[in-house]
Amino acid sequence: MNSLSLESPAKINLYLEILDKRSDGFHNLKSAFQLIDLYDEIQISIKESKEVTILCEPAVIDSKDNIIFKAIEMLKKKFNINKGVQITLKKNIPIGAGLGGGSSNAASVLVALNKLWELNISDLELLQIGKDLGADVPFFINGKNVFVSGTGDKFELKKSEKSKYVLISPNINISTGEMFEYYSNNNSSVSLKEASQNSFLESVKAKYPEINTFYKKNISSFNICLTGTGSTMFIAYKDSNELEKILQIIPINWRFFLTEAIQYSPLEGMK
């Protein structure tokens, strides 16, 4: 086998509570991760040369300064792999949006290369490699919906929601690291109750006036939730009547996605 095609799913945080900051600089948190049917499309082909090539459509990521490249290089170094690989990525998940797209891509590449390069890495070791790349990568390798605790490294399986969601993307790229720093400096005492469904909500509203305006205008009529550190918001809906009302409030220059909860990642069929 020399190539694989796979779908790399997004996630939403049904809730996200920051508990405290640890002495090592990381934060303890509680959250619920829900997989949804919004996917990036990845084509992976093995090359006999040592070159690693990443082609992205649209060209929203750097060919080398990204988590996919880091995942490949980590495997090559750890297992003395001399072959190269070409990645073709069709990016449907917004970046810097709290949907885990980059982490999902890295997880998909790790699982696929474990198979293509016949490395026979155990699930436990693959999860550790993922953790070294980023906090959310192990979740996507695991491929199941979970309650999360600790620094994001402790999982408890949860049943999938059966909801449909409108994802509302204001086309703002938010750095997770920068938002954690902003939160620590400005909102460390905000509780989950005060911050509604997401501890980062007040920070995101304070830093991005357009999100604050949208939220204040519509929160009395809709249960607007924030995923991750933003910028994407989501609203659950049950029928076409509710959907129509939600679509009417989305600014014309923002993007939206109609999604549904899923029980398992497509990676489940590859491991």
Can you describe this structure?
Strands 1, 2, 3, 4, 5 and 6 form a six-stranded mixed β-sheet that branches. This protein starts with a strand and ends in an 11-residue tail after the last strand. 30% of the residues lie in helices and 30% in strands. It is an alpha+beta fold and 271 residues long. The protein folds into two domains: 156 residues, Ribosomal Protein S5, domain 2, CATH 3.30.230; 97 residues, GHMP kinase, C-terminal domain (Alpha-Beta Plaits), CATH 3.30.70.
**Which structural class is indicated by helix and strand composition?**
alpha+beta
Rg, alpha carbons: 19 Å
Model regions low in confidence, pLDDT < 50 over at least 5 residues: 190-194
Level of helix content?
25-40%
Number of domains: 2
What would the CATH topology of the largest domain be? Ribosomal Protein S5, domain 2
Average pLDDT level:
92
Distance between the termini: 15 Å
Count of helix runs: 8
The fraction of residues in strands falls at 25-35%
Q: CATH class of the largest domain, please?
A: Alpha Beta
Architecture (CATH level 2) name of the largest domain: 2-Layer Sandwich
Question: SSE string, helix = H, strand = E?
Answer: EEEHEHHHEEEHHHEEHE
Overall morphology: globular
User: How many β-strand stretches?
Assistant: 10
Major sheet, described briefly? 6 strands, mixed
